[in-house]
Write a structure and sequence with these properties.
With 291 residues, the chain is of the alpha/beta class. It folds into two domains: 16-81, Chemotaxis receptor methyltransferase CheR, N-terminal domain (Chemotaxis Receptor Methyltransferase Cher, domain 1, Orthogonal Bundle); 93-283, Vaccinia Virus protein VP39 (Rossmann fold), CATH 3.40.50.150. The protein is 41% helix and 16% strand. Strands 6-2-1-7-8-10-9 form a seven-stranded mixed sheet. A hairpin with a 4-residue loop joins strand 9 and strand 10. Helix 2 packs antiparallel against helix 4 (72-81). The longest helix is centred in the middle third of the chain and has 16 residues, at 93-108. The N and C termini lie far apart (79 Å). 34% of the residues are buried.
């Protein structure tokens, strides 16, 4: 008598045609474009989802994915496909620019008592928006004179949950001055650190697909956007649409900071280039100005 099979057999083949169909589908849903250089990464993540869902092949998985009305599996796939590499005080020269130059200009355009709004996208696991909060508390002399709202968004629900948990590895906090680490974090077992509840409560997290106008149109009257190292995953069309969405979200005279390898001049002519002593940033023209 033959022994019963102990494992379900899965067809591991993803053909070139399968890859192209999936790539087009994922691009339409997220704006993220995978070139051939990402093929190994994409195939690996796809087969993990095939196995996790109990499908017997990529084709059966992909068929179910396209007709999943709940979008639960699409969200699980997005979470699997997005890359979240970050740490506290990453590219800190832009935070220096924020407290040394940008906020002073923002304040001059504000009516008394009017709120300052800062949007960090993608949030990843929270290091960037919490870095913004720490910089404001420690390095912006006017923080006690103004109400500041920090918004932070990501397409990945898994990293948003991690951000709200606020537990970080020693590597993630390695760039923080020791005084800040001890002031805003509590040590945990295995060398991890938990951020203070006050800082968690200071950031409003939300899920946002930057390629979906229904998601982005609720963001308006923003004064400063940090959108760093996200647009490199988009193609030219998706970059332009994402930048236009952020342009609409900004107040006139508002600023956007991109990653060090990203250039607005290659994407859109909507913004003016501003060079400060700490960093180069991009500004939405004020009323009456032209880019």
């Amino acid at each position: 008598m033959k022994a019963a099979a102990t494992a379900r057999e899965i067809d591991p083949v993803i053909t070139d045609a399968d890859f192209l169909k999936f790539r087009d589908f994922f691009y339409r849903k997220t704006g993220i474009h995978f070139d051939e250089g990402k093929r190994y990464f994409v195939d690996k993540r796809l087969m993990e989802r095939v196995q996790a869902t109990g499908a017997d092949s990529f084709r059966s998985y992909f068929l179910a994915l396209r007709f999943d009305r709940s979008s639960d599996e699409l969200q699980a796939l997005v979470n699997s496909m997005t890359v979240n590499e970050t740490y506290f005080f990453r590219e800190a020269y832009q935070f220096d620019c924020m407290v040394n130059s940008l906020l002073d200009e923002v304040v001059r355009r504000k009516a008394p008592g009017e709120r300052i709004r800062i949007w960090s996208i993608p949030s990843s696991t929270g290091e960037e928006p919490y870095s913004i909060a720490i910089y404001l508390l420690e390095r912006w002399p006017q923080i006690d004179l103004h109400e500041v709202e920090i918004l932070s968004s990501d397409i990945d629900t898994r990293v948003l949950a991690a951000a709200q948990q606020g537990v970080y590895s020693a590597r993630s906090v390695a760039q923080l001055p020791r005084a800040y680490l001890e002031k805003y974090f509590s040590p945990m077992p295995q060398g991890e650190w938990r951020i203070s509840r006050d800082l968690v409560d200071a950031v409003e997290f939300s899920q946002v697909n930057l390629s979906d106008p229904k998601d982005t149109r609720r963001f308006r009257q923003i004064d400063l956007i940090f959108c760093r190292n996200l647009l490199i995953y988009f193609d030219d069309l998706s970059r332009r649409l994402a930048v236009e969405a952020m342009f609409d979200a900004l107040n006139p005279g508002g600023f956007i900071c991109l990653g060090h390898s990203e250039s607005m001049s290659r994407i859109s002519s909507l913004f003016q280039i501003r060079r400060f002593s700490d960093a180069m940033v991009y500004q939405k023209p004020q009323d009456g100005d032209r880019p």
